[in-house]
Each structure stands twice: as C-alpha cells, then as structure tokens.
Specification:
GO terms for molecular function: DNA binding; DNA endonuclease activity; hydrolase activity; metal ion binding. The chain is an alpha/beta fold. Helices cover 47% and strands 12% of the residues.
C-alpha cells in the first residue's frame, strides 16, 4: 500500500524523530497484543527479562546471537518501517537486514550524485574522508597523492601503537591467500579490521546509503562500507588490534581472532561507535564539502 497517497503518512513516526538503534541478543523477538516483545535469557548487554520494544520510535533493531524472530515481529517492523539487522556479537559482524525504507531519498541521492561526478563531487567526498582521517584538509586533488600521504601516516600509527603496547612490530605484512601465515600483530589487525567493517556495514544499512558506491575504495561490492570503516582505523581498529595482540602474549591459548573481535566489540558498545559512524556518513554528504 502506498500510504502516502492515501493521506496516512502520519501513521509512521518520521525517522528524524526516532531514537536510533536498540541492541538485543539471546532472546526471542515476538508480538503480543500488537506490541513488539523481547524475552531475554540474559547476557552482558541485555539483562534477563521481558521487554516491550518501542518499535515505532526506533530506526533499527540490532538482533545479536542466540536470538529468534517471529513472522509477526517481521510484519510489525515492516509495517512501521523499522529495520531489523542480524549482527554478530557486539556488532562486529553484519549478516543481513531487511531494506530500510527511509522517509526521504536525499542522502542516497547525494551519495549517488557525488559518486557519478568523478572529477568534482567524488573527489570532494574523498578529500573530506581524508580530512577526517588525517585531521586536516589537504590541498592535493590527486587520489594517488592522498593515498601516499595517508600510507606514510598509517605506518607511523602502527609503529606508535606497537611501542605503546610493547609489541614487537616488523611492519604490515600478510598474504591474502594465507592470512594465518602472518605474525600475531598482523593477524590481529586483519581481524580487528573485519570487525570494524561489520560495524560500518550496519551504519550503511541504517542510513540506507549505497554500499557499492565508494569514494576511496572502488572495486569491492562493499566499497562504501570499507570507506566508512577506514574513518575509524586510527581510533578503533589499530588500538584494538594491538591491545588484542598484547592479550594474546599473556594468554597464548586464546585464539587471536576471538581476542580481536571481543576487544572491538567492547569499544563499539562503550564508545557508541555505530551511531558515530551514522553521523559521520551524514556529515560526508552535507551540501557544503571541502
């Protein structure tokens, strides 16, 4: 039904007036008396109990491991245009989500318009991304030059992080065909990066932007997701990776993948990283770009 054409658009609360995300895990999401209900078994993030979920006031429900969802719950969420995403522990994996139908296509249209303008709009957004990553607006307009500047800076960030955590660091090296052949710090970086990419995928889904249309990354079907994840490499990915590598030195029997994933998950929850990613995406496509 095209509710807007029937004059019923006010039946849904606009997304601008909603409260963002709610995290649920280890429980059952169902409907009772027309209301969304979540019965939680209990976890680190959700205490055991019986909850009523204000789905009309939410943009997205994030459903973590150990959870089930009923057909009625999916129907209610779709009716009120509230998205549901199946995620990994702490938001470090993004498995699937029903499409979020936003109130307006403005954000996606601005993304597509900027991306299609390879010489103008696309470079403006890429430069804004580099400004966010490097802490300053660089005068360069050649993407290769910007990548080179950032590459040198990232090498120094790796070195400083290794020194801060007392980790022996021999440089960024890994074989894409055999990632487990890398040393522990490099494996930790791989796993932490994957976890942050999962969070970025949730943010992209929540904003209904287009994952294929990246501005720095180009070939991947998740190019924009990778762009967003890289905006948090210095503050989340690298610190979490070296913290996990240090924890592995103390507990060598614990798999480095698990340590890295849990370390990132803790930061995502503690620092509200996914909401910050959502805000960052909106900032990228403001009318005025450098």
């Amino acid at each position: 039904m095209l509710k807007g054409r029937l004059g019923l658009e006010t039946a849904r609360q606009p997304h601008a007036d909603r409260h963002g995300l709610v995290w649920l895990d280890r429980g059952a999401l169902t409907v009772e008396d027309g209301c969304l209900r979540f019965v939680a078994a209990g976890s680190e993030t959700v205490e055991a109990g019986d909850y009523r979920i204000p789905h009309q006031a939410l943009s997205m429900v994030l459903l973590g491991p150990g959870s089930t969802v009923s057909h009625d719950a999916l129907r209610i969420l779709a009716r009120h245009n509230t998205a549901l995403a199946a995620i990994g522990e702490g938001g470090v994996r993004f498995y699937t989500a029903q499409p979020l139908l936003p109130d307006t296509s403005a954000l996606a249209r601005r993304q597509a318009t900027a991306w299609a303008d390879a010489k103008g709009g696309r470079m403006k957004v890429a430069r804004r991304m580099y400004a966010l990553r490097l802490g300053e607006v660089l005068p360069h307009r050649d993407i290769a030059v910007l990548r080179g500047i950032e590459g040198a800076r990232v090498k120094e960030i790796y070195r400083q992080a290794a020194e801060r955590h007392g980790i022996r660091w021999q440089g960024r090296r890994y074989d894409r065909q055999n990632p487990n052949a890398a040393d522990i710090p490099n494996q930790a970086l791989n796993h932490a990066a994957s976890a942050v990419e999962g969070a970025a995928a949730i943010a992209v889904a929540a904003t209904a932007t287009i994952p294929q249309l990246g501005f720095i990354h180009e070939d991947s079907g998740q190019s924009f997701v990778l762009d967003v994840a890289d905006l948090f490499r210095d503050t989340i990915t690298v610190p979490c990776a070296f913290k996990a590598a240090k924890a592995h030195e103390k507990r060598p029997t614990d798999p480095i993948e698990r340590l890295a994933r849990r370390t990132v998950a803790e930061r995502l929850r503690r620092d509200g990283v996914i909401p910050a990613m959502i805000d960052r995406i909106k900032t990228l496509f403001e009318e005025e770009t450098p």
